[in-house]
Amino acid sequence: MRNEMKLNDDWRFHLGEIGSPVKTVKKAGAIGGLTAPLKGEDGEQITIGQGGKHFLNLISQGDLKRGLRMLAGTDMDSELTEEWDRIAIPHDWSVAVPYVDAPELLMSGSKPENIGYYRKTFSLDATLEANQIVLKFDGVMRMASVWLNGIYLGDNISGYTPFEFDITEIAKFGDEGVNVLLVRADTTTGAEGWWYEGAGIYKEVRLQFLPKVYVDDDSFYIYTKEIGENAVLGCEATFVNCTDKPQTVRPTLHVGDQQVAFDGITIEPLHSVSINKDFLIYQPRLWTPETPHLYEATIRIYGEQQNIDEFSTTFGIRKISYDKNGFFLNGSNYLLKGVCEHQDFAGVGVALNKDIVEFKLLKLKEMGVNAYRSAHHFASKDLLDCCDRLGIIVMNENRILETSPWRLRDLEKMVKRTRNHASLCFWSIANEEVIGNTKLGHRMAKRVTALMQSLDYEHLLVSAELLNPEGIVDQEYMSNFDVVGVNYPEAGVMGEGLKKIKANYPEQPLMSTENASYFSTRGIYKDNAEKCQTNNFGSLYSMVLPGKRKLGDPGVGGTARPEEVLDFIEQNPYMGGSFIWTAFDYAGEPAPFGWPGIGSQFGVLDTCGFEKDYFYYYQSKWTETPMVHVMPHWNKEGLTFNEDGKVEVRVFSNCDEVELFVNDDSQGKQSVGEHHNSWVVDFIPGELKVIAYSKGEAVVSDARVTAKEAVDFLTEVIYDGETTQLIKVEAIDGAGNVVPMANNALDIAIKNGSLLGTGNGNPAYAEEDKENALHLFSGKALLIVKKEAAAVPKIKVAVAEGCGKEGQLSAVSDSKGNP
Ligand code: GAL
Fold first, then answer.
1. pLDDT digit string (tens) for 175-230?
2. Which domain holds residue 673?
3. Residue 81: pLDDT band by 50, 70, 90 thresholds?
4. Is the Cβ atom of 396 under 6 angstroms away from ligand 1?
5. Residue 558 beta carbon below 6 angstroms from any ligand 1 atom
6. Is residue 615 part of a domain?
7. What is the rounded CA–CA span in Å between residue 14 and residue 1?
8. Which of these three, 300, 315, 330, is where a domain ends?
């Protein structure tokens, strides 16, 4: 039976070039250097049999070391110096590297490109020699080269595709000594995207031990053919024989209590055999975002007596279709309440563990999101697993519309790995490719879509296009997709183009694949270009407020206020719904500013997952549990006043009525409006409160209180995962009120845990960053804490020495905020 070993701990890491080991050799297994055991490590630098020794002795005239060096071409005296850090994976080396102000790095987050080396040794028990052994990397950013035991295994180019090597014969077992794994990652050869992509081994590394006759994981495919009282499903699988004799196996498929038997099959030595069969599931429980029911399927192969191998996958039963009227799930028209996302997070870059992935998705659910576009790259397995469970429809995106052989190989692998996921409904083939709508683009799209359709029979193929005022006129190009996606259809030029397509091709299925790109900085109610801050009420730097901006200014690309986006979707239901750009801010692409901007501010949550005000706008539109939110904060210095010296107050709610109070004086009750409710009031320090009513009854309220200076910090666990806690730190004044503009520098001490990273959501590099201490931004910061087994982490937060009022502002609390 198969087994797995994680290789995530005890790595050594070196940032910067050390002189790459060679990739070709004069004698097998003879690269040596850091790719093989070093002095003090258990095993020979180069494994030398009898004949080899004779040969080496000859060339070195008795000096074995010199002979080895001549043979290997590598320095055999390599050492792991103190410069090599001790790290665990997932790891993103860019997080700890200082920011640099360089225009060419602005889009990728102002972190310099570099080369990094990772080295790990591991031992394998002698009994494992009986297996096929596969070394698996879930993600290395980018241009990875891998060596094992003095042998170069190969390269993987893209940072968005997992890859693996069969190391069955190359691995060392028992007293053969340790295995030495060396990985070189190189981000200097060109970015893959125009956003922060991270650097290094940012996902898990594993060894898979397979029996000599096994199920090929990627071949196992379960798909929905028809749904009704019973569902008709298809099943495909391939079995591999790595022995030197023909093997007869009997496959069976298990879904719940149900078992489907296949005829016995014989697999010739070093060959594989594929099977397929339809089967029924009686009274199926369908997968929907509201009821994300998952089935588990196991394909098992039996030899003469016993079970030789088995592989399991979860899947969902659902039918997806799309026509000129929009999206249909299980036959019902269904509104997509979607977001587009990159994959990074505060404090950890792209090295997100499963807990952080789940935290992000739970935040989206809280906002009412039911769809996720993995823009503009393949979604990770962790993300897809989580979307399956939480009921979030996925649009998985091909990185780029190219048909070079390696891209097609990557695509094939990703289609096979993704197609069983219940949450997968759409594949996006391209995003705003400049070759879109051309003959060249058509040839590439044709090849890509044909490949995908040969591997995946149920998911819909979409493109995400930017339109010109004429729309897409090349019918050939358009004909490659089940659905033509339009980015920013709510915007001028794109809207004009869309009208033309709709008029010329009324039957064409169309989808809104990207929307809004609306800027806002969390907790900020005043534009400040120097600090790269934009007002949550609507920024003068936004592309949608005319007058201040012209085409060609940095950051042009956004299109509409959130209210306008959802209006457009309501008026044009055939567009399927929306995919807001973006839910979370991400590092890089610091539109609409240049340096010191280091991150985007398109999100309705910042990079830490702290909500901005418009999070609640979407929540008011997309959820039903009574909610109300009032903006802005109620501290004068941070507010924008109109000519009459008054200030706007805006409220989002899904209830019937809302009533605003300033210091208990009612400012009037209003019916909940189409978009939001708004009052223009005098600023009087104290309390700004809103009460929301349903059927005349007060049901929820929200308030902001004018705060004084910060004297203390509260900590609150906002997510408690299997291995990780996310802890919000918030400044409070002497009366316990949240201080909305606090930016104190903090010292953090942790017991029963360790700090994986910190963040504060500031989209700009701030003066305070130089002090290298964590500081609050708009009153908040985030701690990402790795838990220690069975103990609750305890956090101590104090103002950092030399910053603020030392001695006066200190607090000790456990992770629940208790002193
Ligand atoms: C879109 C693009 C996104 C992002 C966005 C910013 O056109 O697809 O990747 O750059 O603009 O507004």
1. 999 999 999 999 999 999 999 999 999 999 999 999 999 999 999 999 999 999 99
2. 628-705
3. confident
4. no
5. yes
6. no
7. 37
8. 315
Q: Could you tell me if 220 and 86 lie in one domain? A: no
For residue 376, the ligand 1 atom closest to its alpha carbon is 9
- Give the position of tokens 């934009």: 534
Which residues are registered as beta bridge partners of 233? Answer: 224, 279
Cα of 537 vs centre of ligand 1, distance in Å, is: 22
Percent of the chain scoring above 70 in pLDDT: 93
* Residues 173, 299 within the same domain: no
Query: Are 34 and 137 part of one and the same domain?
Result: yes
CATH number at residue 428: 3.20.20.80
664 and 716 co-located in one domain:
no
State the sign of the Cα–Cα–Cα–Cα dihedral 72, 73, 79, 84: negative
Task: Give the integer Cα–Cα distance in Å for 445 and 449.
Answer: 6
pLDDT, residue 802, reads: 44
Residue with tokens 């042998």: 151
- Rounded CA-CA distance 206/33 in Å is 24
Residue 674 lies inside a defined structural domain of this protein: yes
Q: Are residues 89 and 71 in the same domain?
A: yes
Say if residues 393 and 425 touch (Cβ distance below 8 Å).
Answer: yes
The domain boundary, picked from 684, 705, 726, lies at 705
Q: 540-563: per-residue pLDDT in tens?
A: 777 665 555 554 444 444 678 899
Cβ atoms of residues 327 and 513 within 8 Å: no
Q: Would you call 81 exposed, middle or buried from its count of C-beta atoms within 10 A (0-12, 13-18, 19+)?
A: exposed
Q: How confident is the model at residue 101 (pLDDT cuts 50, 70, 90)?
A: very high
Q: Which sign does the torsion angle of CA 653, 704, 530, 611 carry?
A: negative
Considering the domain architecture, whether residues 22 and 124 belong to the same structural domain is answered as yes
Query: If pLDDT is split at 50, 70 and 90, which confidence band does 451 have?
Result: very high
Q: Give the model confidence (pLDDT) of 50-74 as tens digits.
A: 777 666 666 666 677 777 777 776 6
C-beta 601 within 6 A of ligand 1: no
Phi, psi (rounded to 5 degrees) for 200 = 110, -165
Strands 510-516 vs 483-487: parallel, antiparallel or unpaired: parallel
pTM exceeding 0.90: yes
Say which amino acid occupies 643: E
Determine the pLDDT at residue 541. Answer: 79
For residue 73, which amino acid is it? G
Tell me how far apart the alpha carbons of residues 715 and 291 are, in angstroms, rounded to a whole number.
Answer: 34
Best of 341, 514, 559, 593 for a ligand 1 pocket test (most atoms within 8 Å of beta carbon) = 514
C-alpha distance from residue 200 to each of 153, 598, 780 (Å):
18, 20, 29
167 and 27 belong to one structural domain: yes
pLDDT of residue 473: 75
| Tens of pLDDT, residues 458-501 | 999 999 998 888 887 788 999 999 999 999 999 888 888 999 99
Residue 347 domain-assigned (yes or no): no
Q: Is the CB of residue 557 below 6 angstroms from any atom belonging to ligand 1?
A: yes
Neighbour count for residue 14 (Cβ, 10 Å): 19
Q: Tell me how far apart the alpha carbons of residues 379 and 419 are, in angstroms, rounded to a whole number.
A: 12
**Same-domain status, 667 and 778:** no
From the CB of 107, is ligand 1 less than 6 Å away? no
| Backbone phi and psi for residue 460, each to the nearest 5 degrees, phi listed first | -90, 145
The CATH number of residue 719's host domain is 2.60.40.10
Asked whether residue 611 is domain-assigned, the answer is: no
Identify the pLDDT of residue 809: 37
Q: Where are the alpha helices (DSSP H) in 760-811?
A: none
Domain total for the chain? 5
pLDDT at 814 over 60: no
